[in-house]
Amino acid sequence: MRTSLSNTCCAWLLTGTIVGLPQLAQAQDKKLVLRVADQFPLTHFMPRYAIKPWMEQVTKATNGMVQFEHYPAEQLGKAKDLLSLAQTGVADVVLFAPSYASDKMPLTAAFELPGLFEDSCQGTLTHWKISREGGIMAEKEYGPNGVRVMFSAVYPPYQLVSAKRKIETPKDMEGMKLRILGGAMDITMRKLKAVGVKMPSTDAFEAMSRGTLDGAIFSYGVTANYNIPAKYATVGAGFGSAAAVFLISENRWKQLPDNVRKAMMDAGEMATRSVCAGMDKEEASDGEKLKQRGVTMVRWSAADKKYIDDVTASVASEWAAGMDARGKPGSEVLKAVLNARGGR
């Protein structure tokens, strides 16, 4: 069942009559009801720290003019289809993982590269800097897809989660079938002689339960929230991460009144900082939850970590070169990421 921040029906409304957005822009005192869609249950940190606060702040900043119908947990469509829901107008705003559409959004995979970020906030605020209007990701990645970023979220560094196999050293990864997001993470897995299987996080539980996968590259938060059937998980390894973006179509954006646009971007700044702080806070507690469920937390030796660093040292340059060869500005984006990650 959907959740609602409004008692009105799921449409653009003006005194009970459906009208077009240009009319709404001329009547800013009327109710504007927007559909928001995402893949997560309401208990997930993304709705709690970002989506719900964003909606509430926009409604407050517009004195109740903007209200929302919220469809969590894939109620309007599967995780991989949320981008198209925004582009086609089925939803007005969506939370989307660009790695699910790597053919359309390949450059966001820069945030899958190993060793770039120490925590969620470093990755999230880096992404936010270069994804807002005028940033390289806005111009080269999201704009060409007809969407605009309302807020950013980059997960804490991902760990190796194993369903059954012991992972006492990196060598134990060899031959394991592991859930990954996309191309950059696939390069990392191949370097470590594992087999990367691209799959939405929502499908990992069933795949690992059935033995189709040996494990996954996940954060503790995702592992705990999705009840992933894990027996082992690494500590501090850092196999890259993943970005999620809260998107609105450019067509919808252009039709909104100026005060609504400002409210959305102001709320986006708040939500970006809120969600990364929340994820960083909960990553430690989620690690403790996994321990309590009987998951063995594996901390590899300094020599093992050096081995991983040495083996994956060329992943970033290989990814960037691969993008360049496809006519995408991979090297330019990687440089922008490295330049932006220093400050907050």
- The secondary-structure element order is EEEHEHEHEHHEEEHEHEHEEHHEHHH
User: pLDDT below 50 for ≥5 consecutive residues: which ranges?
Assistant: 4-28
Q: Strand-residue fraction?
A: 15-25%
Computed structural class = alpha/beta
Q: Please, how many helices? A: 13
Strand order of the largest sheet: 1-5-4-6-13-7
Distance between the termini: 38 Å
Query: Kindly state the mean pLDDT as a whole number?
Result: 91
Q: What percentage of residues falls in helices of 4 or more residues? A: 40-55%
Q: Helix and strand layout, with pairings?
A:
Elements: E1 3-4, E2 13-14, E3 17-18, H1 21-26, E4 32-37, H2 45-61, E5 66-71, H3 82-88, E6 93-96, H4 120-131, H5 136-142, E7 147-154, E8 159-162, E9 177-180, H6 183-191, E10 195-198, H7 204-210, E11 215-218, H8 220-225, E12 232-234, E13 243-249, H9 250-255, H10 258-292, E14 296-298, H11 302-312, H12 315-325, H13 330-340
Parallel strand pairs: 4-5, 4-6, 9-10, 9-11, 12-14
Antiparallel strand pairs: 1-5, 2-3, 6-13, 7-13, 8-11, 8-12
Helix pairs in contact: 2-10, 4-10, 6-12, 12-13
Description:
The protein is globular. The protein has 344 residues and is α/β, with parallel strands linked by helices. It has a 6-stranded mixed β-sheet, with helices on both faces. It is built from 13 helices and 14 strands. α6 links the parallel β9 and β10. α2 (45-61) runs antiparallel to α10, α4 packs antiparallel against α10 (258-292) and α6 crosses α12 (315-325).
